[in-house]
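seq as requested:
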Amino acid sequence: MVSESSTVEVHRVCERFHSAIELIGSRWTGAIVRVVFTGSHRFARIREAVPGLSDTMLAQRLRTLEEHGLLERRVGPAGPAQVEYHLTQKGRELEPVLDAVITWSHRWIALAEQELEAESKNGPEPGPERANELESEPAPAREQPAPRP
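struct tokens:
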């Protein structure tokens, strides 16, 4: 318990940190950057590597990454049909950050199939809809200790 006389120091979030997290943490962006790190540079290959990513969202994210200097768009000699996206120096410097996130995710984030496997062994975790049912159900009666002689 904290007494009223003690003070808690508030640390404001650094604006640079906040901007960086917003940039690389926005939906699909980290996955897109990771795919480019693995050698996929063409639009179609990037889209194939990220399930659920639409053409429109990919185009938007690629533009954002270009605007922020993480990717550069290169047009081949055959024109727009040969567009590739490559990491800039700024983008390549994200590699240890992404590697750290990958390591962390392997330790702490379960895959859907792992979650299903655990559920089949332990029964489902109560979701919000089931949690409401559980709250409205009366608690099971507890056994009363036998009276002492």
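Confidence is low (pLDDT under 50) at residues 125-149.
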